[in-house]
Amino acid sequence: MKLKGRVAIITGASSGVGYATARLFAREGATVIAAARRRDRLDHLVAEIATEGHQGFSIPTDVTDSAQVQRLVDQTLGLLGRIDILLNCAGGVMKVSPIESFSDAEWRGVLDTNLSGVFYTARAVVPAMKRQRSGTIINLGSRVGKVGVANIGPFCAAKFALAGLSQSMAQELRPHNIFVTTVYSGLINADIHPLNPAEAFRRQMITTEDVAQALLWVCTLPPSLRVDELPIMPRQVDL
Ligand SMILES: NC(=O)c1ccc[n+]([C@@H]2O[C@H](COP(=O)([O-])OP(=O)(O)OC[C@H]3O[C@@H](n4cnc5c(N)ncnc54)[C@H](OP(=O)(O)O)[C@@H]3O)[C@@H](O)[C@H]2O)c1
User: Domain-by-domain residue ranges, the chain?
Assistant: First the structure.
């Protein structure tokens, strides 16, 4: 087991990449703290993990609410005493539309979920990781956080900003033996509401299980190696 004894907080664990990674990390011996808003999905995940003989906890959390994020981290430390991995998967496009059709609330919603949520979780876990003198933080960025794409302006803006936040944290936290990696992914066959692609196109995307394997690799790097950025793409599609 590659993650035996490690404690991993995974946001966005109720579906997609977060869900698949929670399953894999638990199988590899990590104790998983599953966070997202949908309690029923988190409870289902934790039950599946338990059925396989592994350990997980569900802590429903809205990452746009810094008080809920602080409670997530405090409860994790109360239960398990340490946090080795923070995996920020919570996020999403939310709306595909011309820029002038986004309301103030929609703009803020996309930024709050994809950017502020990462800031809140990182800010909350870093004191514990500094005390431990170890930690891994992985942020799910996007290919469209490197290259702007039409009709998802707020999402592109949030993921571009996430790249800057991640680079800054990586530099700042490295002396504390805390390593920050941004995974820039192309299209993943997850919920990806509201894109709703055809089934044939979905089959060309990266699977959530394969993303989970990439994330496991980042969490189990050899001691001389760090990975600040990891671009991943579907084999045959440039999106
Ligand atoms: N799918 C792609 O093609 C793709 C490509 C590049 C990057 N990404 C990024 O990969 C990450 C995972 O997305 P996915 O593809 O796995 O999509 P997904 O299946 O839609 O998962 C998104 C997750 O985010 C959670 N979430 C959304 N808002 C939240 C909030 N306010 N508080 C807490 N959790 C929240 C959702 O759970 P609840 O609704 O239960 O809260 C869900 O578990 C995202 O950051 C996404 O931007 C995806």
Answer: 7-232
